[in-house]
């Protein structure tokens, strides 16, 4: 498959994955609906089920008998395949591999939750801590639903991991990524100057890393 086609497909997949964050209904889930996927165990056993990734609780969720449950026994899980994408475990958190070659690029999907606040004096609202809100809604299972209670706001964001020369390094923006390629500093700056690269656009990071890999 041609490199441009690969990047185009990757861009489409990420756009589909984040379109819901603009709708407010499933902003805390990576995909707009549960999709049949496969959980590959380290034993070699494959389990097929309906899957989705909850960026807020940072859990892989599956549906069983009408209930949404978090995937357990993570120490026995090797890889999760869903919607044409591949997820691995890093310190008991799922990370998605979005580029594999000389360098590997992974992305960790995360999300913040903002409590709508409680009624206060003079018609105002009182914001409670996100931790308290998270705990209360997690306890009654509402965070596992595709739609959060009315009024809640979510902020999806990404954390990246680059595997280079066998070492896995974390970065959150282009500036931090540049430090991982200090030996190619001139090439890095040249590419970024001539191309739009942003941590909010994973395919643009893939294109940059591919360029550095080939030069």
Strand order of the largest sheet: 4-3-2-1-5-6-7-8-11-12
Mean pLDDT: 83
| Series of secondary-structure elements, N-terminal to C-terminal | HEEEEEEEEEEHEEHHH
Distance between the termini: 20 Å
Profile the largest sheet: 10 strands, antiparallel
Overall outline: globular
Low-confidence spans: 1-24, 119-129
Q: Could you estimate the helical fraction of the residues in percent?
A: 25-40%
User: How large is the share of residues in beta strands?
Assistant: 35-45%
Number of helices: 5
- Work out the radius of gyration: 19 Å
Secondary-structure class: alpha+beta
What's the β-strand tally? 12
What tags apply to this protein structure?
215 residues, 36% strand, disordered N terminus, 10-stranded antiparallel beta sheet, 12 strands, alpha+beta, two-stranded antiparallel ribbon, 5 helices
Question: What can you tell me about this protein's structure?
Answer:
The chain is α+β, with helices and mostly antiparallel strands. Helix content is 26%, strand content 36%. The chain is built from 5 helices and 12 strands. The chain has helices spanning 3-19, 130-139, 174-179, 185-194, 202-214; strands at 35-41, 46-54, 59-64, 67-70, 77-82, 85-90, 93-100, 104-114, 118-119, 125-126, 153-164, 167-171. Strands 4-3-2-1-5-6-7-8-11-12 form a 10-stranded antiparallel beta sheet. A two-stranded antiparallel sheet has the order 9-10. It is globular and about 55 Å long. Mean pLDDT is 83; it is low at 1-24 and 119-129.
